[in-house]
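dumping this here before i forget
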Amino acid sequence: MFNLTYEFKLKPTKQQSQIFDEWLEVTRRVYNYALAERKDWYKSRSCQLNSCSLRSCYIISADATRPTYGSQCKSLTAAKKKNPNLKKVQSQVLQQTLKRVETAFTLLWERNTGFPRFKKKGRMRSFVFPQMKGNRLQPGMVKLPVIGWVRFRQSRNIPEDGVIKQARIVKRVSGWYVMLTIQWNADIPSPMPHGEPLGIDLGLTSFVATSNGLLVKRPKFFGDAERKLRWLQKRVSRKPFGSKNRQKAQNKVAKLHEYIANCRKDWHRKLSHQLCDNAGMIFVEDLNLVGLSRGMLGKHCLDAGFGQFLGILEQTCVHRGVYFQKVDARKTSQICPNCLTETGKKTLAERTHVCGNCGYTTDRDVAAAQVVTIRGLAAVGHTVKMLAEGKFIGIPLKQESSFL
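structure:
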C-alpha cells in the first residue's frame, strides 16, 4: 500500500466558511485547555521541597495521574454534556486536536523541540477528519463529515481506484485548502541503482553544484522581498491593536510570506526535475539541517530551504524512477576526488580546489559533489575504477546554469 496527498483549493460558501472558522476556534480552545491541564500537572511536580513560591503554587493531589490522550478524551466526552459548543464539532476532529497535544509532548521528550506553547486567536489554522468512509468524492466536490458537500478547484485528476483515508482543512491568507490523503492497494518498487551517477553539493554561493560541473546560483527569495516586508511590518506596528486596519495590514504581510514560500517551492520542484533528466542515480549529503539553521548563516540557510529541496528531490526521484540516497557529509570539501587524499580545511573565501598531491584543480563545490558521488557509488556496491580512468578530470572550472 502507498499513500499520496492531493492539495486543492476549496470554494466554500459563506455559511461553510463561517463553520470552518467556528470549528477552528473550538479546536484552539480545546488545544489550549488540554495543554494547560498537562502544564499544571507538571508544574505541581516541580516545586521545591525547602521553600514555597511567593507568587502562586500548583496544588494538585499527589494521587492524580498524568494527563494522557486517553484520559483527556474521556474528559472531553464528559465536557460535551455541559458545553454545547463542543457538540457542533465532529468528535474525531476534537480527538485529533488532543492527539496534536500528545504529539507535541512526544517531540519535546524525543527531539527536545521545546515546551509546547498556547495558541492565540488565529494561530490554529487546520483541523483533520481522520476517517472518510463511503463515496466522498465527486468531480470538483468533496463531502466532509457533518459539513456536507464542498466545492473545490480540481487542478489535477484523481485516480478512481484509490480510497480517501483522511482530509485536512487548512486556512491560509489566500483561502481555504483541502489535503486529501488517498491510499492504493499496490506496492511501488523502489528504484534500483542504474544509469549515470550524479552527486550534488548544496551551498549558499551556489545552491547546487553537481559532479558533472553544473553550478546553479542561489536565488534569494526572502532577501529580495525583505525591504517590502519591513515596510509592511512597520505599517502593522502603527495600527491600533484590535482594529480592522491592523488586521488588513497583517493580511498583507501574510500574503507576502505566502508568495515567498510559493516561489521557493515552485523553483525547487523545477530544479529537481532538471536534475533528474540525465541521471539514473542521485547522491546528496546527509546534512545537519537543524545545526545549519541555528548557525551564523542560519537566516540564509532557511531562505535557501535545503530541507524542503531535499524532500522534493526525493519525491521527484521516486516519481521519475531515479535512485536517491544520502551519504555522509563529513569532510567532502577536504578530500581530493581524483586521488582521495585529504587536502585540509578551506576557508569560505577559497572557491577553488587545488590538490597538492596530484595537482587536480576544479571548483570547490564541484569537487565536493564528486566526493559525494564516490561515496554514493561505494555505498551501492559500485567500484571506483572511474578514478583510474580519469572520468572526473577535464571538467570545466565553472559552468553557469541556464536554469532560471
